[in-house]
Request: fold
Amino acid sequence: MYVIDQLLKTVSSQLEMVQDMGEGLDQIIRWRNKPLSFVSMIIFVLVTYYIELWMVPLAIGLLLLYSHVAQRCGVKKKETWVRNNVNRAYYEVTRETEGESTGFSAKLDKMKTVFTTAEGIQKGLDFAASIGEKFGHIGQWKNQFVSAMCCVILISAGCLLYYVSPRYMIIVWGLNKFRKFYFQPNLVDNNEMVDLLSRIPSFPEIEQYRQIRSRGSGARPRSAAGSSRELNKAD
Reply:
């Protein structure tokens, strides 16, 4: 179980690293540092306009080749913030396991670790299953309005991509992001995909709705019977 807990902490630290990078990008988009945001916007437009699809695997391959050549030549690796944060959880768990105590307190800590790990795994699996069920319900037309809207959006996007290059659409989307937050820095950005999925129920939500509906339908006859009994007593 300590191995699972170690893996969970490693993944969580990597997710925190990605979250920090996202917060940094959010600071750039919101024009917290105007010169940096302006330069980033120009770089975004130029890279999106001139980049080709074949450049992406070529750049990754060159980076791997550079790493191999640097190791062969004995170039000393620089300690970076990314490398330190990725390995942070592993070393923390290793120190904890090396210096753990014995006795009742150690058993209690192990039980807490087991329950915490199981709870984290359950939440992750529930979230992944819920997302998959929501996408499946869109295809099964559980919500007629949302499924019809997705159908119209997908067909329109296909027609638009046939006539307009994707690079121009990405440039327009990025410039709209910079423009929106330049005039409204404190604007709360809305995630359309999350809003769309929130309108689609998962299997547990459908079951809860059925139970609530059955309770409501069962409460009405009892209330009607109770009122008739009161009327008979009054007579």
User: Anything to note?
Assistant: The chain has a mean pLDDT of 76. Residues 8 and 117 are 8 Å apart (CA to CA). The chain is about 80% helix and 0% strand. Residues 104-139 form the longest helix (36 residues).
